[in-house]
Design brief:
The chain is mainly β. It is 14% helix and 42% strand. The two termini are 26 Å apart.
């Protein structure tokens, strides 16, 4: 395990590699091979809603994510490109059910988030920020700040919402197991629990905290509990629990 001091001297490419290894914790994989599967269940009735299939990164540091129904039919996909900091990947998400596309890409100054709904595009700039966390980058952000977070510090970051062309402030902190709705799930290995909450009152009125459970030894995300970034086929928000499985090499 690399120390926090050594992390400060790692290049961006090295930081990406460390975060992906912590995420996958597997031997080298073939490009495009699925290495992580997340299964989402509705919080209301525990019925399976969809799966997320994450690929190993290719030679250009691209990770492909395919979303499928419980029957295995693909309906959306996402590309994450890790050319910089591990918690700031480029994002390109397409939902074929409703002709929706969300993108976050680098600009001359900062980033651009773009929303395309049935062929009509709109965009908004994002100012450069060292605390910007994009999409699945929240996992790398937590891993990168593991020592501080597990010691009890609360960290804040900015999180783009391309569906609204907005930027929301969030905070993450470690919480006691009994304070997490995930602590009742059966497990053998020690776990660490985190909560992510909006820092702005206007967002906290509409969004409950997101809860995460991690493997305490390998720093792997095991469970997610809260509002999904994926709507249902009718475009309505979904509250889910996502259980993640890390696949062995074939």
């Amino acid at each position: 395990m690399l120390t926090t001091r050594l992390l400060r001297h790692l290049s961006k490419r090295q930081l990406f590699s460390r975060s992906m290894l912590l995420l996958i914790a597997l031997a080298p994989m073939a490009w495009g091979q699925t290495v992580i599967v997340g299964t989402a269940y509705a919080l209301a009735n525990q019925q399976p809603l969809y799966q997320e299939h994450y690929s190993a990164p290719d030679s250009q540091q691209r990770v492909q994510v395919t979303y499928t129904t419980p029957q295995g039919e693909a309906f959306a996909h996402k590309t994450l490109i890790y050319n910089g900091l591990a918690f700031q990947p480029q994002l390109d998400f397409v939902d074929n059910r409703n002709q929706t596309r969300f993108q976050i890409t680098p600009a001359a100054q900062g980033w651009i988030q773009q929303r395309t709904l049935k062929g009509k595009a709109s965009s908004a700039p994002i100012a450069p920020s060292a605390t910007l966390v994009i999409d699945a980058g929240f996992n790398a952000f937590i891993q990168h700040h593991w020592a501080a977070l597990t010691a009890g510090q609360t960290l804040t970051f900015d999180f783009p919402l391309p569906s609204r062309l907005a930027l929301v402030g969030l905070s993450v902190q470690r919480i006691a197991p009994e304070a997490s709705p995930l602590h009742t799930l059966e497990h053998k290995a020690p776990r660490v629990y985190f909560a992510i909450k909006p820092t702005q009152a206007v967002f906290s009125l509409f969004v409950d905290a997101l809860h995460l459970a991690y493997d305490a030894t390998h720093q792997q995300l095991l469970h997610f509990h809260g509002r999904s970034n994926l709507t249902n086929a009718q475009g309505k928000a979904q509250d889910v629990r996502i259980d993640y499985r890390y696949l062995s090499p074939r």
